[in-house]
Write a structure and sequence with these properties.
The structure holds two protein chains of two kinds.
Chain A: H1 2-12, H2 14-40, H3 45-58, H4 60-82, H5 90-107, H6 115-141, H7 145-165, E1 171-172, E2 177-178, H8 200-217, H9 219-229, H10 231-236, H11 241-264, H12 285-296, H13 301-320, H14 329-343, H15 345-366, H16 377-381
Antiparallel strand pairs in A: 1-2
Helix pairs in contact in A: 1-15, 2-3, 2-14, 2-15, 3-13, 4-8, 4-11, 4-12, 4-13, 5-6, 5-7, 5-11, 5-12, 6-7, 6-11, 8-9, 8-13, 9-11, 12-13, 13-14
Chain B: H1 2-30, H2 38-56, H3 63-91, H4 96-118, E1 123-124, E2 132-134, H5 144-148, E3 150-152, H6 154-172, H7 174-184, H8 186-191, H9 196-221, E4 227-228, H10 236-246, H11 251-269, H12 275-280, H13 284-302
Antiparallel strand pairs in B: 1-4, 2-3
The chains are: A mainly alpha, B mainly alpha.
Chain lengths: 382, 321
Amino acid sequence: MNKKFSLKQIFDSRGFSAFTATLMAIIIGLVFGYIVMVIASPENAWLGFSSILTGGMKKIGDVFYYATPILMTGLSVGFAFKMGLFNIGASGQYTMGMFCAMYVGFMFDLPDGIHWIVCVLAGMLGGMLWGIFPGFFKAFLNVNEVITAIMFNYIGMYLVDMLVTGNPSMYDSVRARTQYLPETAKIPSLGIEGSNVSIAIVFGILIAILLYIILNMTTFGYELKATGFNKEACHYAGMNGKRNIVVTMVIAGALSGLGGAFAILAPTTIAGSSVTYEPINVIAANGFNGIAVALLGNSSPLGIIFSSIFISYIQRGGTLSALYGYKPEIIDIVIAVIIYFSSFSMIMGGALAKFVNRFTKNQAKVNVNAESPVLPEEGKEE
Amino acid sequence: MDTLVYIIQNTLPVMIPLLLVALGGMFSERSGVINIALEGIMLAGAFIGTLFVYFIQGSGMEPQVILILAMMVAAIAGVIYALLLGVAAIHMKADQTISGTALNMLMPAIMLLFCKMTFNSDGVTTNVAFYIQKIPVLGDIPFIGRLLFQKTYLTVILGILILVIVTIVFYKTKFGLRLRACGEHPQAADSVGINVYRMRYAGVILSGILGGIGGFFYAVSVMDGNSNGHTGVAGFGFLALAVMIFGQWKPISIFFAALFFAFLRTVAYSVPLIPFLANLGIDNAIYKMLPYIATMIILAFTSGKSRAPKAEGIPYDKGQR
């Protein structure tokens, strides 16, 4: 009986219902993806689908490599969400961070071991700079942060493209992309063979844990979440809402900027080369992917660690399913469907908890001595 | 003078998609549903509309008739797609930002998958000449005819017509008043017998119609009758969102906001043709940034009392009074 009581408590907790709901959303998304694959080409569907599920295992280094930037932009969006701000500007902050990191990488000549650190910090500053605008406009000029962020995505993108193409020591006009960065500017590799993954992923995870601590154990974090719940009440309680808005957006910008720096400073497997940037007037996709990551991770820093790795994982699997003639866009569909269904996660989670409660209650009536009630989820999890 | 005429002739076809989609967003948000999904809805309209044109273009129909038919198809596509948002936001009480973002991601993926599998390309390419050199009679009016009815698309006239209808529906009908009430205080609206759920569905459906048409008009007048899954609608859905906020969720203000934005954008893209600007020797990218910067500056000065519909984004719960 004792065990059952604690079980009920777990099922009733918000975190758990969010988790099971996300899990259900993932299952629905994958089933949907499988159906699309069957329609596209039935004979290979199972092979393709299993390569989506397990393909990431074969490229575990790449999973972490591609997870790094979306982890950072995801944290950025998620952190702002806690305050009730929608940071759709992660893209511009990411681009600015990438540019500043690149600028220090090309223009400064610093000793090995220090150079890349300065580059990363410059990237963070670049992101912060672009985070100030939505925060400032929202707090002091009453401009909706969504519109500022969208506008500054474009301004940042055009600005960076202009600065890159106008600087011959950064831009290779023949190949229409940036030059290769010097070795010293690259983040040390994590040492997984055949992959660009760097120690940045470790930093990313540590930053996520730090954010978790800030949100849950500091006054600032408390004020932030409280403002997200009820702005007026917090103003009444004497919290400085305006300052908190700006600080939140600056932190969110710093996180996205780090994402950009981590992306461009990644070590490459081919000696002498580096990741390059093509100034083709397109908004950085990693910023928008960050929104998906944050939503799937329920805006919680720890959840975002897992959601970024999960999204990267099935994306790697998706590229492998091309071997069976499938287009990688199937993965984008799967991710979109997952996010769509996780948007009503609370309703689904609530329904599930109700179902479980009724189930356990019924069981208790039928068999008072039941030691371990069967979890209805167990079958679905597999 | 010729330059000015040229710029205006090119501004209008760019303005219309922005205007229509922003009006769609307005209907949705004034009924209480945040519509981040405008980008996805636009692309749905652009994709299905051009696909329809692709299948019908061999039939020898008049290009302008094809345009009107495809416009209707695009509107239906937009409605169906917007209903995905509606069901999530109204019935499932979902977080509207999240479902909207999901729909923005879903459409390009579906479109790319379909186009890669059927056409082995990233989009739909059509070859119908929608461009109009000169509209008979109207194009002969001195000056104004040259400004508005020459070297243009039918989309401009249709768009202005839609603006007029929307403004009347929004302000002069019972329906418009009720819709607006649902976005401000749904509980009060409900207490006088208005079905809030139905009104919000109406708002979402209207945003689907206008978003789908806007997307197709974008494909016609900006992309020359084609659509592409990679570039999509180049962020026009998000810009329309910005135009809607810039226009204070009011039809006429939205019209001026869209005109302003489209004008600056057209200037930026036609700098080489304007001797005065070309001689200044400023980097072209500065001009491209200009519409966005100018919007921000104006907003900074005018947003002091800007206010979004009060109940937008909050799922309506009958039990909550």
